[in-house]
Specification:
- The chain is mainly alpha-helical.
- It is built from 3 helices and 2 strands.
- The protein has a two-stranded antiparallel ribbon with strand order 1-2.
- A hairpin with a 2-residue loop joins strand 1 and strand 2.
- The longest helix is centred in the last third of the chain and has 35 residues.
Length: about 110
């Protein structure tokens, strides 16, 4: 009985470790991809030997191509995202609070 319990515990622990690695994989991918050079991004190495900040510079300061400068208003997008998140959180809390005020009277009814 004790042996079976240990086997089940080790099986559950192994299952959880496997899913922890699968869960962390996208975050590792997000860290390693922007630090590569654009020309060498198809190489099969896990981490670049000489990481660069080129992609982040393009994101915050724009990308110059010949006479054209592409500037992405990243901070504006970030502010809009925060605004939408705060408003939706407030509305969810408001509707849940109203529902909880009505719920006890309908249960006892």
């Amino acid at each position: 009985m004790i042996r079976r319990r240990k086997i089940v515990q080790y099986g559950i622990a192994g299952f959880l470790c496997l899913f922890a690695v699968l869960y962390l994989f996208p975050y590792i991918w997000m860290v390693r991809c922007p630090s590569r050079r654009t020309r060498r991004s198809s190489q099969a190495t896990s981490f670049p030997s000489t990481p660069t900040w080129e992609q982040y510079q393009r994101l915050f300061y724009g990308y110059k191509f010949k006479d054209l400068v592409l500037i992405i208003p990243y901070l504006t997008y970030y502010k809009n995202t925060v605004f939408v998140t705060v408003v939706s959180l407030f509305l969810v809390l408001l509707t849940d609070a109203l529902r909880l005020m009505v719920l006890p009277s309908s249960i006892s009814g």
